[in-house]
Amino acid sequence: MSEKRTPFVRLAKRTDIDPKKAWLIRVASIVVALILGCIPMLFTGTNPIEAYSVIVQGSLLRPVYFRQTVKIAIPLLGCALAIAPCFKMRFWNIGAEGQITMGAMCATYFALYWVDKVPSAVLLVIMFLASLVGGGLWALIPAFFKAKWNTNETLFTLMMNYIAIGIVAWLQGGPWEGRKGSQLIPMFDDAARLPNLFGVHIGWIFVLVLVVLMHIYMNKTKQGYEIAVIGDSQNTARYAGMNVGAIIMRTMFISGAISGFVGFMTVSGANYTLYSGVADNVGFTAITVAWLSQLNAFAMIFISMLLAVISKGANTLQTRLQVPASISDIITGILLFAMLSCEFFINYRLIFRKKGEEVEA
């Protein structure tokens, strides 16, 4: 009879966990991350308490800082909402960066060439619709190939990011270049800019409305149910009579359209121009927001604001305490790593070997 030694530590899938305990683990992970973040600060001679105080002050405690923090959170929240249906369907849309860029590009065309042809309100509506179509069609390309030939959507959507960025880079130095040799697209006219409300462009209202709509769409509609079934098993979905390919393309178009809308808000509400880096890694950071929130639309508000506070506060930390940018990045990385790692302990538990379990027959 063969014998084998029981491992000292084993993993076991949690079948059920109390939601309160799950959120307690998440809060604990943030506390651990803040403690670990003190280590690089101490190496640079920075007082951790003072540093964290500066981060909070520089992102929340003054109206001007708070508005800047909200501006950072808006595209993060919008893009996380965009990719949530895809991820629930287990279609790994890594192309939000390119979809944002294409939506921004389509909106910019009308901002540059239609500004004198229609009233401001009409122009903004046209730019909005153009961004939806641009982002949606860009996302539809990998969805079609996935539905038709089962291509790898992760690589496909990732590569399309660089194509979109390249197109805008060509426009910068070519057809849409402003002053010759500047490699810059002209700034938008006031008529092509989103109005402000409480010091922030009105995109924040639309994004909050979108949170409610996405929650309803994902949890209360037939299409949301179809997305969930496909995410669980495509074979089950086909057996139930669902057209899996059509649902994939429909969901990706919606995802791309919302990402395109984020691009519209970025160029019309924040930057007032278009450039190749307009997405500014929002498409990638939003993946973290979506996963940390467990695809919960309302939880995404908190996660987006938390990351925005870190981002804005880190900038203040650099200028006020002369902390190197790399230290701010390390602190941000530690926090994100801890928050992502906590999901492991929510989904799995560790079983340590007890006496009497030394050998298994």
UniProtKB/TrEMBL annotation:
GO molecular function: transmembrane transporter activity
InterPro entries from the UniProt entry: ABC_transp_permease
TM annotation in the entry: 23-45, 65-87, 94-115, 121-143, 155-176, 196-218, 239-264, 284-309, 330-351
Membrane-related topology note: Multi-pass membrane protein
Principal location listed in the UniProt entry: membrane
CDD domains (UniProt xref): TM_PBP1_transp_TpRbsC_like
Cell membrane keyword on record: yes
Location in or out of the cell: Cell membrane
GO cellular component: plasma membrane
Keyword line: Cell membrane, Membrane, Transmembrane, Transmembrane helix
PANTHER family, per the entry: ABC TRANSPORTER, PERMEASE PROTEIN (PTHR47089), GUANOSINE ABC TRANSPORTER PERMEASE PROTEIN NUPP (PTHR47089:SF1)
Protein name per the record: ABC transporter permease
Organism of this sequence: Candidatus Aphodenecus pullistercoris
